[in-house]
Here is the input.
Amino acid sequence: MLCVIGLNYKNSSIEEREKFAVQKPEIGFTARRFFDTLNLNECVLLSTCNRFELYCALGAKNRAKSVAAGIIDYFKAGFGPDDERFYVLFGEDAARQLFKVASGLDSMIIGEPQILSQVKHAYSSASEVKTTGYLMNKLFHQAIKIGKAARSETAISRSSVSVSGAAVAAVKKERGGLSKLSALLIGSGETAELALECLIKGGVRKSAVISRTLEHAEALALKYGATAYELTSLYERVRDYDIVISSTDSPHYIIGYEKYAAAGSSRSKGSQIIIDLAVPRDVDPRVSEIDGVSLYNIDDLAVITVSAVSERKKEAAKVAKIIDAEASVFLDWYEGRPVKPFIEKFRAGIEKTVEAEIDKFTKKLPAGASVPEKSLNALKQAIINRICDGPISRARNCPDKSRIHDCILNFECFFDPGCGTRCGGRKK
Here is the structure.
Protein backbone atom coordinates (compact mmCIF):
# COMPACT_ATOMS: atom_id res chain seq x y z
CA MET A 1 0.00 0.00 0.00
CA LEU A 2 1.46 3.35 -1.10
CA CYS A 3 1.30 5.96 1.67
CA VAL A 4 2.67 9.41 2.49
CA ILE A 5 2.81 10.73 6.05
CA GLY A 6 3.85 14.30 6.80
CA LEU A 7 3.20 17.96 7.43
CA ASN A 8 3.93 21.15 5.50
CA TYR A 9 3.75 24.93 5.58
CA LYS A 10 0.00 24.90 4.91
CA ASN A 11 -0.93 23.28 8.21
CA SER A 12 2.06 23.88 10.50
CA SER A 13 4.20 26.77 11.70
CA ILE A 14 7.95 27.04 11.31
CA GLU A 15 8.30 26.27 15.04
CA GLU A 16 6.50 22.95 14.45
CA ARG A 17 8.25 22.08 11.18
CA GLU A 18 11.73 22.61 12.55
CA LYS A 19 11.12 19.77 15.02
CA PHE A 20 10.93 17.46 11.99
CA ALA A 21 13.80 19.01 10.03
CA VAL A 22 16.39 16.54 8.75
CA GLN A 23 19.55 18.09 7.35
CA LYS A 24 20.59 17.12 3.83
CA PRO A 25 23.51 14.81 4.77
CA GLU A 26 21.28 12.92 7.24
CA ILE A 27 18.31 12.21 4.94
CA GLY A 28 19.51 8.79 3.81
CA PHE A 29 20.47 7.73 7.33
CA THR A 30 17.09 8.81 8.73
CA ALA A 31 15.19 7.06 5.92
CA ARG A 32 17.06 3.85 6.72
CA ARG A 33 16.31 4.25 10.42
CA PHE A 34 12.58 4.56 9.72
CA PHE A 35 12.77 1.63 7.28
CA ASP A 36 14.30 -0.62 9.95
CA THR A 37 12.53 0.52 13.11
CA LEU A 38 9.05 1.03 11.63
CA ASN A 39 9.15 -2.18 9.57
CA LEU A 40 8.51 -0.51 6.20
CA ASN A 41 8.59 -2.34 2.87
CA GLU A 42 10.12 0.70 1.14
CA CYS A 43 10.51 4.40 1.95
CA VAL A 44 11.84 7.76 0.75
CA LEU A 45 12.18 10.75 3.07
CA LEU A 46 11.66 14.28 1.75
CA SER A 47 12.67 17.03 4.19
CA THR A 48 12.80 20.69 3.11
CA CYS A 49 12.19 24.08 4.69
CA ASN A 50 8.49 23.80 3.92
CA ARG A 51 7.70 20.13 4.43
CA PHE A 52 8.45 16.79 6.01
CA GLU A 53 7.06 13.83 4.07
CA LEU A 54 7.77 10.11 4.34
CA TYR A 55 6.66 8.21 1.23
CA CYS A 56 6.45 4.52 2.03
CA ALA A 57 5.12 1.12 1.05
CA LEU A 58 3.15 -0.53 3.84
CA GLY A 59 2.09 -4.14 4.18
CA ALA A 60 -1.41 -2.98 5.18
CA LYS A 61 -3.28 0.32 5.26
CA ASN A 62 -4.05 0.03 8.97
CA ARG A 63 -0.32 0.25 9.77
CA ALA A 64 -0.19 3.94 8.84
CA LYS A 65 -1.23 5.20 12.26
CA SER A 66 1.51 3.28 14.06
CA VAL A 67 4.08 4.50 11.52
CA ALA A 68 2.94 8.10 12.05
CA ALA A 69 3.19 7.59 15.81
CA GLY A 70 6.72 6.22 15.40
CA ILE A 71 7.78 9.27 13.37
CA ILE A 72 6.30 11.69 15.91
CA ASP A 73 7.95 9.82 18.76
CA TYR A 74 11.34 9.89 16.98
CA PHE A 75 11.22 13.68 16.69
CA LYS A 76 9.59 14.17 20.12
CA ALA A 77 7.04 16.48 18.50
CA GLY A 78 4.65 16.53 21.44
CA PHE A 79 1.42 15.67 19.61
CA GLY A 80 -0.31 12.50 18.44
CA PRO A 81 -0.72 10.87 15.00
CA ASP A 82 -4.35 12.06 14.80
CA ASP A 83 -3.32 15.71 15.08
CA GLU A 84 -4.66 17.85 12.23
CA ARG A 85 -1.14 19.08 11.46
CA PHE A 86 -0.19 15.59 10.30
CA TYR A 87 -1.65 14.22 7.06
CA VAL A 88 -1.79 10.62 5.87
CA LEU A 89 -2.62 9.91 2.21
CA PHE A 90 -2.90 6.59 0.39
CA GLY A 91 -2.68 5.25 -3.15
CA GLU A 92 -3.60 7.75 -5.83
CA ASP A 93 -3.80 10.64 -3.33
CA ALA A 94 -0.26 9.90 -2.12
CA ALA A 95 1.06 9.72 -5.69
CA ARG A 96 -0.63 12.98 -6.66
CA GLN A 97 0.85 14.67 -3.60
CA LEU A 98 4.38 13.82 -4.74
CA PHE A 99 3.59 14.83 -8.31
CA LYS A 100 2.35 18.24 -7.11
CA VAL A 101 5.43 18.65 -4.94
CA ALA A 102 7.88 17.76 -7.73
CA SER A 103 6.16 20.09 -10.21
CA GLY A 104 6.21 23.03 -7.80
CA LEU A 105 2.42 23.26 -7.46
CA ASP A 106 2.54 22.50 -3.74
CA SER A 107 5.32 24.99 -2.97
CA MET A 108 4.89 28.12 -0.87
CA ILE A 109 5.93 30.03 -3.98
CA ILE A 110 4.36 28.23 -6.95
CA GLY A 111 6.93 26.85 -9.37
CA GLU A 112 9.98 27.61 -7.21
CA PRO A 113 13.00 25.95 -8.82
CA GLN A 114 14.68 24.15 -5.92
CA ILE A 115 12.08 21.54 -5.02
CA LEU A 116 12.76 19.23 -7.98
CA SER A 117 16.44 18.91 -7.03
CA GLN A 118 15.34 18.22 -3.44
CA VAL A 119 13.02 15.43 -4.63
CA LYS A 120 15.88 13.95 -6.67
CA HIS A 121 18.19 14.12 -3.65
CA ALA A 122 15.60 12.44 -1.42
CA TYR A 123 15.25 9.58 -3.89
CA SER A 124 18.98 9.14 -4.52
CA SER A 125 19.66 9.19 -0.75
CA ALA A 126 17.07 6.46 -0.19
CA SER A 127 18.48 4.42 -3.07
CA GLU A 128 21.97 4.62 -1.57
CA VAL A 129 20.78 3.16 1.74
CA LYS A 130 18.64 0.56 -0.04
CA THR A 131 15.17 1.58 1.16
CA THR A 132 13.68 1.82 -2.33
CA GLY A 133 12.26 -0.94 -4.47
CA TYR A 134 9.65 -1.77 -7.06
CA LEU A 135 7.10 0.85 -5.91
CA MET A 136 9.28 3.80 -4.85
CA ASN A 137 11.41 3.48 -7.99
CA LYS A 138 8.37 3.75 -10.25
CA LEU A 139 6.78 6.53 -8.17
CA PHE A 140 9.84 8.77 -8.02
CA HIS A 141 10.85 8.21 -11.65
CA GLN A 142 7.34 9.31 -12.60
CA ALA A 143 7.49 12.32 -10.25
CA ILE A 144 10.84 13.49 -11.61
CA LYS A 145 9.52 13.10 -15.16
CA ILE A 146 6.50 15.26 -14.23
CA GLY A 147 8.73 17.86 -12.55
CA LYS A 148 10.85 18.19 -15.68
CA ALA A 149 7.81 18.35 -17.97
CA ALA A 150 6.19 21.05 -15.81
CA ARG A 151 9.26 23.24 -16.25
CA SER A 152 9.94 22.52 -19.93
CA GLU A 153 6.37 22.50 -21.25
CA THR A 154 4.93 25.41 -19.22
CA ALA A 155 6.16 28.75 -17.90
CA ILE A 156 5.67 27.72 -14.25
CA SER A 157 9.34 28.41 -13.40
CA ARG A 158 10.42 30.89 -16.05
CA SER A 159 10.40 34.02 -13.91
CA SER A 160 13.01 34.49 -11.20
CA VAL A 161 10.64 33.96 -8.28
CA SER A 162 11.96 31.66 -5.56
CA VAL A 163 12.13 31.73 -1.78
CA SER A 164 15.39 33.63 -2.21
CA GLY A 165 13.72 35.98 -4.69
CA ALA A 166 10.89 36.58 -2.24
CA ALA A 167 13.48 37.42 0.42
CA VAL A 168 15.01 40.09 -1.80
CA ALA A 169 11.52 41.35 -2.68
CA ALA A 170 10.86 41.78 1.05
CA VAL A 171 13.95 43.98 1.32
CA LYS A 172 12.91 46.08 -1.66
CA LYS A 173 9.44 46.49 -0.20
CA GLU A 174 10.78 47.70 3.14
CA ARG A 175 13.65 49.86 1.87
CA GLY A 176 12.46 50.92 -1.58
CA GLY A 177 15.51 49.62 -3.45
CA LEU A 178 18.95 48.04 -3.11
CA SER A 179 21.38 50.49 -4.70
CA LYS A 180 22.43 52.09 -1.40
CA LEU A 181 22.47 48.88 0.64
CA SER A 182 25.12 46.33 1.58
CA ALA A 183 24.36 42.63 2.04
CA LEU A 184 25.87 39.69 3.92
CA LEU A 185 25.01 36.11 2.94
CA ILE A 186 25.50 33.42 5.58
CA GLY A 187 25.83 30.03 3.88
CA SER A 188 27.12 28.91 0.50
CA GLY A 189 24.46 26.45 -0.69
CA GLU A 190 21.92 26.74 -3.49
CA THR A 191 19.49 28.97 -1.57
CA ALA A 192 22.26 31.37 -0.53
CA GLU A 193 23.56 31.54 -4.09
CA LEU A 194 20.09 32.29 -5.48
CA ALA A 195 19.70 35.07 -2.91
CA LEU A 196 23.10 36.55 -3.81
CA GLU A 197 22.25 36.41 -7.50
CA CYS A 198 18.96 38.26 -6.87
CA LEU A 199 20.77 40.89 -4.79
CA ILE A 200 23.41 41.47 -7.45
CA LYS A 201 20.78 41.75 -10.19
CA GLY A 202 18.85 44.14 -7.96
CA GLY A 203 21.89 46.42 -7.79
CA VAL A 204 23.03 45.99 -4.18
CA ARG A 205 25.96 48.33 -3.38
CA LYS A 206 28.30 45.68 -1.96
CA SER A 207 28.03 42.08 -0.85
CA ALA A 208 29.86 39.45 1.18
CA VAL A 209 29.58 35.71 1.80
CA ILE A 210 30.38 34.04 5.09
CA SER A 211 30.60 30.26 5.48
CA ARG A 212 31.88 27.60 7.83
CA THR A 213 34.17 26.50 4.98
CA LEU A 214 36.17 29.45 3.65
CA GLU A 215 36.81 27.74 0.29
CA HIS A 216 33.06 27.51 -0.34
CA ALA A 217 32.57 31.17 0.54
CA GLU A 218 35.47 32.17 -1.71
CA ALA A 219 34.11 30.19 -4.67
CA LEU A 220 30.69 31.84 -4.38
CA ALA A 221 32.16 35.29 -3.75
CA LEU A 222 34.45 35.01 -6.78
CA LYS A 223 31.52 34.09 -9.01
CA TYR A 224 29.53 37.20 -8.05
CA GLY A 225 32.23 39.73 -7.19
CA ALA A 226 31.63 39.59 -3.43
CA THR A 227 33.96 39.34 -0.43
CA ALA A 228 34.46 36.05 1.44
CA TYR A 229 34.82 35.49 5.19
CA GLU A 230 35.00 32.53 7.57
CA LEU A 231 32.13 31.89 9.96
CA THR A 232 34.43 32.52 12.93
CA SER A 233 34.39 36.23 12.05
CA LEU A 234 30.57 36.43 11.98
CA TYR A 235 30.02 38.65 15.03
CA GLU A 236 32.78 41.02 13.95
CA ARG A 237 30.88 41.73 10.73
CA VAL A 238 27.20 40.82 11.07
CA ARG A 239 26.06 44.30 12.12
CA ASP A 240 28.10 46.08 9.45
CA TYR A 241 25.61 45.21 6.69
CA ASP A 242 22.17 46.60 5.88
CA ILE A 243 20.87 43.18 4.84
CA VAL A 244 21.71 39.78 6.31
CA ILE A 245 20.32 36.65 4.64
CA SER A 246 21.06 33.34 6.36
CA SER A 247 20.58 29.87 4.89
CA THR A 248 22.64 27.07 6.45
CA ASP A 249 22.13 23.46 7.49
CA SER A 250 23.02 24.16 11.10
CA PRO A 251 20.84 22.41 13.70
CA HIS A 252 21.44 25.36 16.06
CA TYR A 253 21.20 29.15 15.86
CA ILE A 254 23.97 30.76 13.83
CA ILE A 255 23.03 34.21 15.14
CA GLY A 256 22.41 34.10 18.88
CA TYR A 257 20.60 36.85 20.76
CA GLU A 258 23.27 37.74 23.33
CA LYS A 259 26.22 37.71 20.92
CA TYR A 260 24.33 39.67 18.30
CA ALA A 261 23.22 42.28 20.83
CA ALA A 262 26.82 42.70 21.99
CA ALA A 263 28.30 42.91 18.48
CA GLY A 264 29.67 46.24 17.36
CA SER A 265 28.89 47.97 14.06
CA SER A 266 30.78 50.24 11.69
CA ARG A 267 27.55 51.00 9.87
CA SER A 268 25.91 54.38 10.23
CA LYS A 269 22.59 54.38 12.06
CA GLY A 270 19.69 52.77 10.27
CA SER A 271 17.62 49.64 10.42
CA GLN A 272 19.03 46.25 9.58
CA ILE A 273 16.98 43.62 7.77
CA ILE A 274 17.71 39.99 8.67
CA ILE A 275 16.06 37.24 6.63
CA ASP A 276 16.28 33.70 7.97
CA LEU A 277 15.64 31.15 5.21
CA ALA A 278 16.68 28.11 7.24
CA VAL A 279 14.65 25.36 8.90
CA PRO A 280 15.62 24.82 11.69
CA ARG A 281 16.06 28.57 12.01
CA ASP A 282 19.52 30.15 11.91
CA VAL A 283 18.53 33.27 13.86
CA ASP A 284 17.27 33.40 17.44
CA PRO A 285 13.77 34.95 17.10
CA ARG A 286 14.52 37.22 20.08
CA VAL A 287 16.84 39.18 17.77
CA SER A 288 13.68 40.84 16.44
CA GLU A 289 13.30 42.54 19.85
CA ILE A 290 16.49 44.55 19.33
CA ASP A 291 15.93 48.13 18.21
CA GLY A 292 16.52 48.72 14.52
CA VAL A 293 16.20 45.08 13.46
CA SER A 294 13.54 43.72 11.10
CA LEU A 295 13.61 39.92 11.20
CA TYR A 296 11.79 37.75 8.67
CA ASN A 297 11.60 33.95 8.64
CA ILE A 298 10.52 31.71 5.80
CA ASP A 299 6.84 31.74 6.84
CA ASP A 300 6.82 35.55 6.79
CA LEU A 301 7.75 35.44 3.11
CA ALA A 302 4.47 33.71 2.28
CA VAL A 303 2.66 37.03 2.65
CA ILE A 304 5.10 38.96 0.44
CA THR A 305 3.38 39.86 -2.82
CA VAL A 306 5.54 39.12 -5.86
CA SER A 307 4.05 40.05 -9.23
CA ALA A 308 5.41 37.01 -11.04
CA VAL A 309 3.54 34.66 -8.72
CA SER A 310 0.19 35.63 -10.23
CA GLU A 311 1.59 34.76 -13.65
CA ARG A 312 2.69 31.39 -12.37
CA LYS A 313 -0.80 30.67 -11.09
CA LYS A 314 -2.01 30.93 -14.69
CA GLU A 315 0.47 28.21 -15.63
CA ALA A 316 -0.66 25.99 -12.76
CA ALA A 317 -3.68 24.77 -14.74
CA LYS A 318 -1.35 23.54 -17.50
CA VAL A 319 0.80 21.73 -14.96
CA ALA A 320 -2.33 20.16 -13.44
CA LYS A 321 -3.14 18.63 -16.84
CA ILE A 322 0.34 17.11 -17.03
CA ILE A 323 -0.15 15.66 -13.56
CA ASP A 324 -3.57 14.24 -14.49
CA ALA A 325 -2.16 12.49 -17.57
CA GLU A 326 0.86 11.04 -15.77
CA ALA A 327 -1.14 10.14 -12.67
CA SER A 328 -3.45 8.08 -14.89
CA VAL A 329 -0.44 6.18 -16.28
CA PHE A 330 0.92 5.57 -12.80
CA LEU A 331 -2.46 4.54 -11.41
CA ASP A 332 -2.97 1.98 -14.17
CA TRP A 333 0.42 0.50 -13.32
CA TYR A 334 -0.15 0.71 -9.56
CA GLU A 335 -3.56 -0.95 -9.59
CA GLY A 336 -2.41 -3.62 -12.01
CA ARG A 337 0.50 -4.73 -9.81
CA PRO A 338 -1.41 -7.47 -7.95
CA VAL A 339 -2.38 -9.09 -11.27
CA LYS A 340 1.14 -9.27 -12.73
CA PRO A 341 2.41 -12.45 -11.03
CA PHE A 342 -0.79 -14.28 -11.84
CA ILE A 343 -0.68 -13.12 -15.47
CA GLU A 344 2.81 -14.60 -15.65
CA LYS A 345 1.52 -17.83 -14.09
CA PHE A 346 -1.42 -17.92 -16.53
CA ARG A 347 0.79 -17.42 -19.58
CA ALA A 348 3.32 -19.99 -18.35
CA GLY A 349 0.49 -22.51 -17.96
CA ILE A 350 -0.78 -21.86 -21.48
CA GLU A 351 2.75 -22.16 -22.88
CA LYS A 352 3.23 -25.51 -21.14
CA THR A 353 -0.09 -26.83 -22.50
CA VAL A 354 0.57 -25.64 -26.07
CA GLU A 355 4.10 -27.06 -26.08
CA ALA A 356 2.76 -30.42 -24.89
CA GLU A 357 0.14 -30.50 -27.66
CA ILE A 358 2.66 -29.56 -30.35
CA ASP A 359 5.00 -32.24 -29.06
CA LYS A 360 2.16 -34.81 -29.39
CA PHE A 361 1.47 -33.54 -32.92
CA THR A 362 5.08 -33.92 -34.09
CA LYS A 363 5.30 -37.44 -32.66
CA LYS A 364 2.26 -38.49 -34.72
CA LEU A 365 3.75 -37.32 -38.01
CA PRO A 366 4.38 -40.10 -40.58
CA ALA A 367 7.88 -41.56 -40.68
CA GLY A 368 10.26 -39.26 -42.47
CA ALA A 369 7.86 -36.28 -42.33
CA SER A 370 8.84 -33.14 -40.42
CA VAL A 371 7.84 -29.53 -39.84
CA PRO A 372 10.57 -26.86 -39.76
CA GLU A 373 11.34 -25.84 -36.17
CA LYS A 374 10.94 -22.16 -37.09
CA SER A 375 7.40 -22.83 -38.31
CA LEU A 376 6.53 -24.79 -35.17
CA ASN A 377 7.80 -21.98 -32.93
CA ALA A 378 5.82 -19.39 -34.91
CA LEU A 379 2.69 -21.53 -34.63
CA LYS A 380 3.25 -22.04 -30.91
CA GLN A 381 3.59 -18.28 -30.24
CA ALA A 382 0.55 -17.48 -32.39
CA ILE A 383 -1.60 -19.94 -30.44
CA ILE A 384 -0.31 -18.72 -27.06
CA ASN A 385 -0.92 -15.07 -27.97
CA ARG A 386 -4.39 -15.83 -29.34
CA ILE A 387 -5.40 -17.58 -26.13
CA CYS A 388 -3.72 -15.15 -23.69
CA ASP A 389 -4.17 -11.69 -25.16
CA GLY A 390 -7.90 -11.33 -24.56
CA PRO A 391 -8.05 -12.50 -20.92
CA ILE A 392 -4.84 -10.69 -19.95
CA SER A 393 -5.97 -7.44 -21.57
CA ARG A 394 -9.34 -7.60 -19.82
CA ALA A 395 -7.66 -8.26 -16.47
CA ARG A 396 -5.25 -5.35 -16.89
CA ASN A 397 -7.93 -2.94 -18.06
CA CYS A 398 -10.75 -4.02 -15.79
CA PRO A 399 -12.76 -0.78 -15.25
CA ASP A 400 -14.01 -2.00 -11.89
CA LYS A 401 -10.77 -2.22 -9.90
CA SER A 402 -12.58 -3.99 -7.10
CA ARG A 403 -12.96 -7.00 -9.43
CA ILE A 404 -9.20 -7.46 -9.89
CA HIS A 405 -9.20 -9.87 -6.95
CA ASP A 406 -11.76 -12.02 -8.81
CA CYS A 407 -9.52 -12.00 -11.87
CA ILE A 408 -6.60 -13.20 -9.77
CA LEU A 409 -8.64 -16.06 -8.32
CA ASN A 410 -9.74 -17.09 -11.81
CA PHE A 411 -6.13 -17.14 -13.02
CA GLU A 412 -5.11 -19.23 -10.01
CA CYS A 413 -7.93 -21.67 -10.59
CA PHE A 414 -7.44 -21.97 -14.35
CA PHE A 415 -4.79 -24.66 -13.94
CA ASP A 416 -6.03 -26.03 -10.62
CA PRO A 417 -8.35 -29.01 -11.20
CA GLY A 418 -9.14 -29.08 -7.50
CA CYS A 419 -10.46 -25.51 -7.56
CA GLY A 420 -13.94 -24.71 -6.40
CA THR A 421 -13.82 -23.31 -2.92
CA ARG A 422 -11.90 -20.10 -3.66
CA CYS A 423 -13.58 -18.77 -6.80
CA GLY A 424 -17.05 -20.17 -6.31
CA GLY A 425 -16.73 -22.73 -9.11
CA ARG A 426 -17.76 -26.36 -8.96
CA LYS A 427 -15.42 -29.30 -8.49
CA LYS A 428 -15.56 -31.75 -11.31
